[in-house]
Amino acid sequence: MTPEPENGASLRLPVELCEDRTGNRYLGAPVPPSAMAPWREAFRAQVGEKHARLLEDHKRTRDGAVWDELPDQRRTASPDADLEHHITLITPPELERLGDLPPQLPQTVEVELIGLGKVQDRETESWFVVAESAQAQQVRHQLGFGPHALHVTLGFTAQDIHHLPKDRSALVAAQVRGPDAGGLGETVRQSQPAAVPRVSVRGRISAGLSALQPSEQRVARFAVEEPERIVESTAQQLADLIGVSRTTVVRTCRSLGFTGYPQFRVALARESPAVSEPTDGETGLRAEARRITEGLDHAFDAVREEDVEQLVDRIVQAGRVVVVANGQSAPCAMDLSLRLTAAGRPAEFLADALAQQVSVRLLGQQDLCLAISSSGANDITLRSLQAARESSAHLVLMTSQEESPGAELTDSTLLLVPPSSSFLESLYSLSRLHYTVAVEALAQQVRLRIGLSGQQTVDVLAENIAD
C-alpha cells in the first residue's frame, strides 16, 4: 500500500514487521521519501548541507545501506536512493517479550509529523522529525506497553541517542502550513514550540513499570527507590544485590529505552545531588591539587606486572600501533602516541571518529589497537573497537570499568583505579590524571625496552628552542 497524506499533515502508513542489519526485529511504519523531502530540506537549512550529509551518512552506516550495490545511473539520478526512513512502533526488546504478534493488529496507522527535533549528549547529537499518532499509542496500550516517543530519524553524529526523549520537548522547528497547503507542499519555518516538561528518569521508569517482566520490575523498582546505589554499582554488583542475573539488569535498561546499563547509570547520576564541596575548611589551589591527586598511589593496584610486560612486548613488536580514544580521553591518547613515537615506537592517533574506524579496520595480525576509555562505554570509541574487531589485530583497552561494553570487545584490559572513590564524583570531576601518569609510565617502559637513550628527542628540542 502506498502511503498518502490525509488532512494536511497526516499520513497513513503501513504497519510492517521489520528487521535491522543486526537481526533485531521490530514493528515499524516506513515513511515514503516524498513525505520526508520537506523535512530533510528543513534539516539542511538548520545544520548546513555539509553537516547534514555527514549525519545522514552515519545513519546509512547504522542501517546497513546498500549504496555500493546501486547502479551508477541510479546514484546519479537519485543521490539519496539508499536512504530510508521509518517510525518504530514496537521496539526490538518489546517485540522479544511479546513473542508472536496478535492477528488483530491494524494494517495501517495514521501519523502526524509535528516538527524538526534534536537531542544532544555532550559531543553527540541526533536529529529527527517528531511524530504523533493516537492510533499507534492505542496499539501499544493494547499490547501492554506504555507510551512511546514516535519519531523519524534524520541523522546523528557517530551513534544515535536513545536515552533522551524525542518528543515535543525536543522540537527546534515546528511545521507551519499556508492557507493553500494541501499535502506534501507544506512549508517549514522556525517556530518556538510550546514548553513541555521533560520526564525524569525515575518518572520514565514508573510510567513503563507495568510493561516489564516481574524480574525486570524488581530492577526498576530498586532504581526508583535507591538510585544512588545503582549509580555506584556495576551491572554485576546490582544483579547480585537484587538477586537477578546480569542479563536481566541489561534487558531492563533496554526495555526502558536506554542502550545499556552504562547509559542508564549515567542518566540516574545526572539527577543525583551534585558532589558536595570539602568540609574541612581548606580551600585554594593547593587544596584542590591535593584533592585531585588523592588516591593516585592506588591507581595501579589492579594492574599486574605480567600484563604490563605483555603489553610492552606487543607495543614494541607490533607492525602498526593505533591509539584510539574520544571525548575526555582523547588528549591522553594523543599524548600516548607522541610519547611512544619519541620513545622510538611510532604510534598513530587520529582525532576524527570516522578516520579512526577506517584506520583500525585496516590493521593486520601483527598490529595493535590500544584504546583509552575510562567508562568503557563511549559510543564513538565503541564504534572504533567494533571496527577493529573486523581486523585481525590485537585489541587492548585502558579503562577504569572492568565490566563494560568496551572490555567485552577487546582481547585484554589495563585496569586503572580512579582517584575518586565515587562514580558520581568521577562524572563531575572528569579527572584523567591517573591516565596521564599511566601514559608516561608506559611510554617510559617502552623506551627502556627498545634501549633508546632519548638523545634524538633532546636534539629536536634543542633545534627548536629560540634564543
Provide an overview of this structure.
By secondary structure, the chain is of the alpha/beta class. It has 20 helices and 15 strands. The chain has three domains: 5-68 and 78-198, no CATH class; 202-270, Winged helix-like DNA-binding domain superfamily/Winged helix DNA-binding domain (Arc Repressor Mutant, subunit A), CATH 1.10.10.10; 291-463, Glucose-6-phosphate isomerase like protein, domain 1 (Rossmann fold, 3-Layer(aba) Sandwich). The chain starts with a strand and ends with a helix.
Give a brief outline of the structure.
GO terms for molecular function: DNA binding. The chain is built from 20 helices and 15 strands.
Quickly list its features.
single chain; Homeodomain-like_sf; Rossmann fold; seven-stranded antiparallel β-sheet; Arc Repressor Mutant, subunit A; disordered N terminus; 43% helix; five-stranded parallel β-sheet; alpha/beta; 467 residues; 3 domains
Give the secondary structure arrangement, pairings included.
Elements: E1 5-6, E2 10-14, E3 16-19, E4 25-31, H1 33-47, H2 49-63, H3 72-77, E5 85-90, H4 92-98, E6 108-121, E7 124-132, H5 134-142, E8 151-156, E9 171-176, E10 187-188, H6 201-208, H7 214-225, H8 227-231, H9 235-242, H10 246-255, H11 261-270, H12 285-293, H13 305-317, E11 321-324, H14 330-342, E12 348-349, H15 353-361, E13 368-372, H16 379-389, E14 394-399, H17 405-409, E15 412-415, H18 423-429, H19 433-450, H20 455-463
Parallel strand pairs: 11-12, 11-13, 13-14, 14-15
Antiparallel strand pairs: 1-2, 2-6, 3-4, 4-5, 6-7, 6-9, 7-8, 9-10
Helix pairs in contact: 1-2, 6-7, 7-10, 9-10, 13-19, 14-19, 15-16
